[in-house]
From TrEMBL:
Highest taxon listed in the record's lineage: Bacteria
Chief subcellular location: membrane
InterPro entries listed in its UniProt record: Bact_Polyamine_Transport (IPR051789), MetI-like (IPR000515), MetI-like_sf (IPR035906)
Species, as recorded: Amycolatopsis deserti
Residue span(s) of domain ABC transmembrane type-1: 65-255
UniProt family annotation: Belongs to the binding-protein-dependent transport system permease family. CysTW subfamily.
Name under which the protein is recorded: Spermidine/putrescine ABC transporter permease
Subcellular localization: Cell membrane
């Protein structure tokens, strides 16, 4: 399609404006994490790493970081196993209600976080009688992390087809050997991409976490929310926010690169 020069400039301006709205505030957060002015005057009067040192020594931040890592890694591990199993079941087999099951698996990531949080809170406390804690937060995070892994694996299985696996079975390999030597190597990058995205989602989740994490526990996003309006903690909050930006961006970038693998193998 041929576009006039004026139209190209308008579209380029709209693109630049959209990206600026998204990324300029993030850049401000990164700059404020090294801004020597505690009132965050603009432009910065100087730069310092003092706030990063304080953040590294802040016990609340370190405990919140540990909780976020534990929840993210555990939820990702659960999502990798269940998401892969669900993807194989729905992609490789035909059964009654297949489309309904697929919808039910994907639905949690489409529901508003506050609805999911309230529903899980009621289920844990009222129906199951389970006290809220790190375990309940991990289960809650896994509900939407599974969707990310499921989508990645289903997409890879559709591109792979079943010819190589059938050839392996024809040559005498059993199901486990075929999965280990043929299927898994071709799925590896899709699983890694799904795992990275799942971890990123879990690491910066706040709404569902608020309703499912036990008292006395904090993740990094909840720590930021609790300390956001405390003047003495403002510099440290910016540092923690900067860390979250990096921790969230790197997995998404790697997942995007891995998801771009071709269907011919998707090997790392």
């Amino acid at each position: 399609m041929m576009l006039s020069k004026k139209t190209k400039y308008v579209l380029l301006a709209a693109l630049v404006l959209g990206l600026a709205v998204i990324y300029v505030p993030l850049l401000v957060v990164l700059l404020n994490s090294v801004n020597s002015d505690t009132t965050f005057g603009w432009p910065p009067s100087g730069f310092t790493l003092e706030w990063w040192g304080r953040a590294a020594e802040n016990e609340g931040v370190l405990r919140a970081l540990l909780t976020s890592l534990q929840a993210g890694l555990a939820a990702t591990a659960i999502a990798l196993v269940l998401g892969m199993m669900a993807a194989f079941a729905l992609q490789r087999y035909r059964f009654f209600g297949k489309d309904t099951v697929s919808l039910l698996i994907i639905l949690p990531i489409a529901l508003p976080g506050i609805v999911t949080g309230i529903a899980l809170n009621n289920a844990f406390r009222t129906i199951l009688g389970v006290d809220l804690g790190l375990f309940t937060a991990i289960v809650a995070h896994a509900t939407f992390c599974i969707v990310v892994v499921f989508n990645n694996v289903v997409a890879r299985l559709r591109r792979m087809g079943g010819n190589l696996e059938e050839a392996s079975m024809d040559l005498g390999a059993d199901g486990i050997t075929t999965f280990r030597l043929v299927t898994f190597p071709m799925l590896r990058s899709a699983l890694l991409a799904g795992g990275l995205l799942a971890f990123a989602l879990s690491f910066d989740e706040i709404i569902v976490t608020t309703f499912t994490l036990g008292a006395g526990l904090q993740t990094l996003p909840i720590w930021i929310l609790d300390n956001l309006f405390r003047p003495n903690q403002a510099p440290v909050v910016n540092v923690v926010a900067a860390v979250l930006i990096v921790v969230s961006t790197v997995p998404v970038y790697l997942a995007q690169r891995l998801s771009g693998d071709t269907a011919s193998g998707g090997r790392l």
